[in-house]
UniProtKB/TrEMBL annotation:
Its EC number is 1.14.-.-. Keywords: Heme, Iron, Metal-binding, Monooxygenase, Oxidoreductase. It comes from Streptomyces olivochromogenes. InterPro entries: Cyt_P450, Cyt_P450_B, Cyt_P450_CS, Cyt_P450_sf. CDD domains: CYP164-like. It is an enzyme of class 1 (oxidoreductase). This is Cytochrome P450.
């Protein structure tokens, strides 16, 4: 394989279709060149490393400077929040994840996500109702982008009147995760730093209010709920809230946008979904395999020398786990380059696996299922205006920057 493969993956020219490069990469299952990371691309290798306690998520264990991880960018900023649990190892990771899970999922809050169903549906309907010109819709700006951030606001308990401010900070932070070669980097860093600081100050104020007068929202519960692990410090609540916002924003935007793009390229499936909203469940799972919003996990470190397929990866090395390549590994999935929601077995790597597997997965799934089934039902004869659409720069959190579509009208 040529040395250039990693550079090719990062190269924007390949953003619309990186899959032939991943096929090339899989031919060298443990790929390493010069000072670069060790790159893993086979399904079973990735799966097993995600469960391996000799692999760390804590950047402090890296021997060489960390490769930027857009999923974790909140911890790199000098606003100096402590690292969120995404970037910690056990036992700290487990303690914070358990405490965050108390108000979010089973066993203590088994109905939390389910109970958001009606509210999510209303947000989706409101956004579709707001589409004024069916001849040219930008699905990203008009739908996929505003949806997840509104959902996080409702989950955390951000008052309605503050949502617009929250959206604007979230947008600035999300944009800072997408390198823009034409932009003034110092200026961008400053703008993003200011947004993080303002968001942090805003959330700190809200936490203080909720400590005095708790409500039913997640911020109140994170700030006050005591279990066997005690109560989170204000800094821990802040970094956890920032993690929920950042990890759940761009990822969900891309799942919905990749989803609509894939459906428009597979009109038979779109038509079936229009008639049967239950098809959204396997459609979303197959999308997480076929076009995963997190293409690779770029920040893992070996805590000791480990051997994979006869190659020794030394202690302190940086690993890249290319989820999107593993998801199309022919040793795992039959006919992997075909989008097929009817394949019975879709154990994809789209949400990672092991102790760091996506915390927000139940919410992300519900958001995407509702969004895609409602778009399929309500847009009359939808079609793509550009194929491929323009993509964001980001090779890790990969997805279209815009998705221009047209339709004949909006059904009630
Ligand atoms: C389609 C949408 C999403 C995708 C594809 C996605 C993907 C992922 C992946 C691949 C990881 C593992 C990272 C690693 O192993 O280092 C992860 C972790 C995480 N995700 Fe998601 N995510 C999505 C939505 C969300 C949402 C909506 C939330 C919050 C409500 C969220 C919160 C988190 C958190 C907190 C972690 C860290 C878990 C840990 O370290 O224990 N994600 N996500």
């Amino acid at each position: 394989m040529t040395e250039a493969i990693l550079r090719q993956i990062i190269n924007y020219a390949h953003r619309a279709d990186p899959y032939p490069l991943y096929e090339e990469l899989r031919k060298t299952p443990v790929y390493h060149d010069a000072d670069g990371p060790f790159v893993l691309s086979r399904y079973y290798d990735i799966q097993s490393l995600l469960h391996d306690p000799r692999i760390s998520s804590d950047a402090r264990n890296l021997k060489t400077p960390a490769t930027a991880n857009p999923l974790a960018a909140e911890a790199d900023d000098e606003t100096a929040l402590p690292p969120s649990f995404l970037r910690l190892d056990p036992p700290e990771h487990d303690r914070l994840r358990r405490m965050t899970n108390r108000p979010f999922g089973p066993p203590h809050s088994p109905r939390r996500v389910h109970e958001m169903h009606g509210e999510l549906k209303d947000i989706v309907s409101g956004l579709i109702d707001g589409i004024d010109n069916p001849d040219r819709i930008d699905l990203v700006d008009q739908f996929s982008y505003p949806f997840p951030v509104t959902v996080i606001c409702r989950l955390l308990g951000v008052p309605r009147e503050d949502e617009a401010r929250f959206h604007s900070w979230a947008d600035t932070i999300a944009a800072s995760l997408d390198p823009d070669p034409g932009a003034d980097t110092d200026e961008r860093a400053k703008v993003s730093h200011n947004a993080r600081t303002e968001l942090g100050m805003y959330l700190a104020g809200l936490i203080e209010e909720r400590r005095k007068k708790p409500g039913a929202d997640m911020l109140s519960q994170l700030s006050t709920a005591g279990g066997p692990d005690g109560v989170m410090t204000t800094m821990e609540v802040l970094s956890t809230a920032a993690l929920l916002l950042i990890a759940g924003h761009e990822t969900t935007v891309n799942l919905i946008t990749n989803g609509m793009l894939t459906l428009l390229r597979n009109p038979d499936v779109l038509e079936r979904l229009r008639k049967d909203p239950n098809l959204a469940v396997p459609v979303v799972e197959e999308l997480l395999r076929f076009e995963p919003p997190v293409q690779l996990v770029p920040q893992r470190t070996t805590l000791t020398d480990i051997e994979v397929r006869g190659v020794t990866i030394p202690k302190g090395a940086s690993l890249w786990l290319v989820l999107a390549a593993g998801n199309r590994d022919p040793d795992r999935f039959e006919d992997p380059d075909r989008f097929d929601p009817d394949r019975g077995d879709i154990q994809h790597l789209g949400f990672g696996s092991g102790i760091h597997s996506c915390f927000g997965a139940p919410l992300a799934r519900l958001e995407a299922q509702l969004a895609l089934s409602e778009l399929a039902r309500r847009l009359e004869n939808p079609r793509l205006l550009e194929d491929p659409p323009p993509y964001r720069q980001n090779a890790v959190l990969r997805g279209p920057r815009h998705l221009p579509i047209a339709c004949d009208g909006i059904r009630p």
